[in-house]
Design a protein that fits this description.
Beta-Lactamase; 5-stranded antiparallel sheet; 17 strands; elongated; binds adenosine-5'-diphosphate; binds magnesium ion
C-alpha cells in the first residue's frame, strides 16, 4: 500500500511537472509553499524563485499583494476565484501594454486527503489559467454589448422588446418617457400587454403574424394608443417585428414613435385657425353693429319727434302724458346708446386729439353698465378732476378700457366690485405759464382697473398679453383683447401692466404720457 502510494505520488508529481499550467501553492500569508516552475513565462515564477518567497514579489515584483489577487478573494470568501492581474497594478484595464495574467485560485484544506503530512497547513492553490484571449473576447463582447445598449438607449423612439410571455427584456430611455414607467419597473414587473389598451397586444401580434402589414412578422406605421403608468394614453406610431430563432418565435420588438408633440402642434394650429375665424367674425360683427346702429338712428329720431309732437299738440290726460314722456325718455336713451355704439365701432384712421381721459372711461362704462353681466357688479369710479386733457385716440382707448373691464367682469362671474381710478402721481397744480401742466408728477396719467375676482394665476401672468392666449372656453375668449390693448397703449408711449392685488382680484394699470411729443403715431 505504501509502495503503491509512492508510485502514485511519483506519477502525480510528474504529471504536475509536465502540465501546461503552472501551479503554485501559497500559504494564507502569500508565502510560496510549492510550485512547478516554468521558466518560459515571463510573468510567472522564474527558476531562481525559491519556496518561502512572497508570491507577489516572486511573480510580479510587486511590493504589495496584487490589487486583483484571486488568492485574497479565496481568503475572504473561502471559494475559488478567477482573476486578471495587471502588470500596471494600478490600472484595472487589460490594454495591449498592460498585459494580464489570468490566475485561478482555490482553497486547499489542511489535512486534506490521504497524502496529508505533519507540516500540512491550510493553503491556496494558484493556477496559471492563461486565459487572456478568453478575457479579451469577453471584453469585446462586453464593449459591443455596451455599444448596442448605448445605441438603443439613445434612440429617439421608444424601443421595447419582450419575450414570448410578454416579459419586457429591453426598455430604453424614450420608452420610459412615453410610458411613465422606470426601466427597473418595466424590466421587473411589466408585461408588454400592460402597455396597450386591453386586447390590443393580441391584435398587434395577430397582424404581425398575418404578413399583411409590411411583411412576415412585421407591422409598419401602425397608429396605436399606448397606456401610460397613470392610466392615460399616449398616441404612437408603432413599427414592430417578431424576432425568430430557427423559425421559432422568441421575442417581439417595437419602436414606439411618440405622437404627442405632433398632435399638440396640430391642435395648436387648429385652435389658431378657429381663433382667427372668431376674430374675423368679431370684426365683421362690429361693422354690422355699426350698420344696424346707423339704421336705427332714423326710426329713433322719428319716435322722439312724433312723441314730442303728440305731447305738444294733443290735449292728453296726465296718465297718457306720463306714458308718452316715458317713451320719449327711453327713445332718447336708445339714441344715446346708438350714438356711442356708432362712435365706438367707427372704423376710422388713427385720430389723436386732446381728450379728457375721465370722459373716455365714463363713455366705455356708459356702454357696459347696463349689460346683464354687470347687473350684480358694484362699480366704483374715482376720477381725479385735475387731470388735464391728453393727446390720445379716443376710439382706441375705448377698446382698451372695454377689453379690460369685460375681462374683469368675466373673472368675477357677474358679482363683485369693479373699481376704476384715474390719477396723477405727485403734487398737483397749475404751472406758472398758466398751461394746464402739473408740477412734480411723473409726466403720466394713471388709470387703474381693479376687480374682486380670483386674480390671475401666477404661472400665466407672463402670458396674458400674448395674442391668442386665453383660459376661456372655446367661443368665449379669443385671447386677443389684452394683446390688442397692449399694442394700443404701447403706441401711445404708455404702459400697460397687470398684477394681483394683495387682498383679492387683479389690477390692470395703464399709464399714458401727458405730452404729445412722446407719441409715435
Ligand atoms: N381680470 C382678470 N382676472 C383674471 N384673469 C384675467 C383677467 N383679465 C385677463 N385675464 C386672463 O388673461 C387671459 C387673456 O385675456 P384676453 O387677452 O382679454 O383674452 P380673452 O378674454 O379672450 O381670454 C384671459 O383668458 C384670462 O385668463
Ligand atoms: Mg378679453
Amino acid at each position: 500500500m505504501i509502495y503503491g502510494n509512492q508510485v502514485e505520488n511519483h506519477y502525480l508529481l510528474k504529471a504536475i511537472e509536465t502540465i501546461k499550467r503552472q501551479i503554485i501553492i501559497i500559504s494564507y500569508d502569500y508565502k510560496i509553499l510549492a510550485s512547478n516552475c516554468n521558466p518560459n513565462k515571463k510573468y510567472f515564477l522564474n527558476k531562481s524563485s525559491k519556496e518561502g518567497e512572497i508570491c507577489y514579489h516572486a511573480l510580479f515584483n510587486f511590493d504589495f499583494p496584487c490589487k486583483n489577487c484571486p488568492a485574497t478573494e479565496v481568503k475572504k470568501t473561502g471559494k475559488p476565484s478567477l482573476k486578471r492581474i495587471f502588470i500596471d497594478d494600478q490600472e484595472n484595464e487589460c490594454k495591449e501594454n498592460n498585459f494580464c495574467a489570468c490566475l485561478y485560485a482555490y482553497p486547499m484544506a489542511a489535512n486534506a486527503g490521504d497524502m496529508a503530512c505533519d507540516s500540512d497547513e491550510a493553503a491556496i492553490v494558484v493556477l496559471d489559467f492563461d486565459l487572456p484571449s478568453l478575457f479579451k473576447c469577453d471584453e469585446k463582447r462586453v464593449t459591443s454589448n455596451s455599444f448596442l445598449r448605448n445605441l438603443i438607449n439613445s434612440a429617439a423612439d421608444g424601443v421595447i422588446a419582450a419575450d414570448m410571455t410578454g416579459k419586457i427584456i429591453i426598455f430604453n430611455k424614450a420608452a420610459t418617457e412615453i410610458s411613465g414607467y422606470s426601466r427597473k419597473e418595466a424590466l421587473e414587473h411589466l408585461n408588454i400587454r400592460d402597455l396597450y389598451p386591453q386586447g390590443d397586444a393580441y391584435k398587434i401580434m395577430k397582424k404581425m403574424r398575418s404578413g399583411d402589414y409590411g411583411g412576415n412578422g412585421l407591422l409598419k406605421g401602425h397608429r396605436q394608443l399606448s397606456v401610460r403608468k397613470d392610466g392615460s394614453t399616449t398616441p404612437i406610431v408603432l413599427n414592430a417585428s417578431i424576432v425568430y430563432e430557427d423559425d421559432k418565435e422568441v421575442a417581439s420588438i417595437g419602436f414606439f414613435h411618440d405622437l404627442r408633440e405632433a398632435k399638440r402642434l396640430e391642435a395648436e394650429i387648429e385652435k389658431m385657425q378657429i381663433q382667427l375665424l372668431q376674430a374675423e367674425k368679431m370684426s365683421s360683427l362690429g361693422k354690422l353693429a355699426a350698420g344696424v346702429a346707423h339704421q336705427l338712428n332714423n326710426p329713433l329720431g322719428g319716435i322722439t319727434l312724433f312723441t314730442q309732437l303728440m305731447l305738444e299738440e294733443y290735449d292728453l290726460n296726465s296718465d297718457a302724458r306720463e306714458d308718452l314722456l316715458k317713451i320719449q325718455r327711453d327713445a332718447e336713451r336708445c339714441s344715446a346708446i346708438v350714438k356711442e355704439l356708432l362712435e365706438f365701432a367707427r372704423q376710422t384712421k388713427r385720430e389723436v386729439k386732446l381728450q379728457n381721459i375721465n370722459k373716455i372711461v365714463g363713455r366705455t362704462l356708459f356702454l357696459l353698465r347696463n349689460q346683464a353681466i354687470f347687473q350684480n357688479i358694484q362699480i366704483i369710479e374715482k376720477y381725479d378732476p385735475n387731470i388735464p386733457e391728453i393727446p390720445v385716440d379716443m376710439q382706441q382707448l375705448n377698446h382698451v378700457f372695454m377689453n379690460i373691464i369685460l375681462n374683469a367682469a368675466d373673472s368675477m362671474e357677474g358679482s363683485g366690485v369693479l373699481e376704476i381710478r384715474t390719477f396723477l402721481k405727485g403734487k398737483n397744480g397749475i404751472s406758472s405759464d398758466g398751461v394746464n401742466i402739473l408740477h412734480d408728477n411723473d409726466g403720466m396719467v394713471h388709470i387703474t382697473i381693479a376687480d374682486t375676482g380670483p386674480g390671475i394665476p401666477a404661472p400665466i401672468l407672463p402670458n396674458i398679453f400674448e395674442p391668442f392666449f386665453t383660459t376661456k372656453e372655446e367661443g368665449k375668449g379669443t385671447g386677443l383683447g389684452l394683446s390688442m390693448a397692449y399694442g394700443i397703449v404701447e403706441s401711445h408711449q404708455g404702459k400697460l401692466t397687470a398684477e394681483n392685488r394683495p387682498e383679492r382680484g387683479a389690477i390692470f394699470s395703464i399709464s399714458l404720457p401727458l405730452k404729445k411729443e412722446n407719441h409715435q403715431f
